[in-house]
């Protein structure tokens, strides 16, 4: 037996190896290359999102996986460890999004392409994002470093504010860019609630269309009809 430590300092005994008769360390038998640990997290995410973190038991997760709770303890010391692992997945998503924003060239056409790509990126992780939003207090209580926990949000906000505060853009361009950001993030969060009756593929395509209009088509049409107002003229 080995000892594992939970995020709150409790100690739990766990098997030194996978329980007999399980595939607790093997790859996904479906052949997609995911480890058992990752499949456990996928199941936990589905259950946490569908019925709530507090209302989901380790027994339910084990039952869906098709093995005993002992097999879960080989990978995770507690349900809290699963929640933290899912939270760290979100850190990776946030880091990728910030990287794309930081690397985007100045022109709005480039912003349009990047934000359209991010529609797919964020929708693919929408359940993870909603889990974080709905369980922020539980995640905050588990995180060993609250400042680090907030850093991804700070980085994202600073990257977006820097783009919107660029006074070399016209006022029209800055407001259009703000609208495109809003369409992406607010639209993504509403898609499974107010827009639950619309297929998610259609929601994504319409959001991409809104971004294209705001940053390319609509801006070109209005620019031809009236001169741009520059922030420097204020």
SSE blueprint:
Elements: E1 2-5, E2 11-14, H1 36-51, H2 58-65, H3 69-75, H4 79-102, H5 108-124, H6 126-134, H7 136-142, H8 146-164, H9 171-190, H10 200-225
Antiparallel strand pairs: 1-2
Helix pairs in contact: 1-2, 1-4, 1-6, 4-5, 4-8, 5-9, 5-10, 9-10
Number of strands: 2
Number of domain modules: 2
Helix-and-strand structural type: mainly alpha
Architecture (CATH level 2) name of the largest domain: Orthogonal Bundle
- The coarse silhouette is elongated
**Largest sheet, strands/sense/barrel:** 2 strands, antiparallel
- How do the strands line up in the largest sheet? 1-2
- Could you tell me the radius of gyration in angstroms? 22 Å
Overall average residue pLDDT: 76
Level-1 CATH class name of the largest domain: Mainly Alpha
How far is the first residue's CA from the last residue's CA? 70 Å
**Proportion of residues in extended strands:** under 5%
Q: How many helical elements? A: 10
H and E string = EEHHHHHHHHHH
In which range does the helix fraction lie?
Answer: 55-70%
Unreliable residue stretches? 1-32, 230-234
Regarding quaternary structure, how should these chains be classified?
single chain
Here the CATH topology of the largest domain equals: Tetracycline Repressor, domain 2
């Amino acid at each position: 037996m080995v000892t594992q430590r939970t995020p709150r300092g409790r100690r739990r005994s766990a098997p030194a190896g996978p329980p007999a008769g399980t595939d607790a360390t093997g790859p996904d038998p479906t052949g997609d290359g995911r480890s058992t640990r990752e499949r456990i997290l996928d199941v936990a995410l589905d259950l946490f999102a569908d019925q709530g973190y507090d209302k989901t038991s380790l027994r339910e997760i084990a039952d869906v996986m098709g093995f005993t709770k002992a097999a879960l303890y080989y990978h995770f010391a507690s349900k809290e460890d699963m929640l933290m692992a899912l939270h760290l997945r979100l850190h990776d998503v946030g880091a990728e999004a910030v990287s794309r924003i930081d690397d985007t060239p100045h022109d709005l056409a480039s912003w349009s392409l990047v934000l359209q790509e991010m529609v797919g990126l964020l929708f693919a992780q929408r359940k993870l994002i909603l889990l974080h939003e709905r369980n922020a207090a539980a995640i905050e209580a588990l995180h060993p470093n609250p400042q680090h926990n907030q850093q991804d949000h700070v980085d994202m906000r600073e990257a977006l504010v820097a783009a919107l505060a660029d006074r070399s853009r016209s006022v029209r361009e800055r407001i259009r860019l703000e609208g495109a950001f809003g369409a992406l993030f607010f639209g993504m969060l509403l898609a499974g609630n107010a827009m639950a009756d619309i297929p998610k593929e259609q929601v994504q395509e319409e959001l991409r269309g809104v971004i294209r209009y705001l940053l390319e088509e609509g801006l070109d049409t209005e620019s031809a009809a009236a001169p741009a107002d520059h922030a420097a003229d204020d």
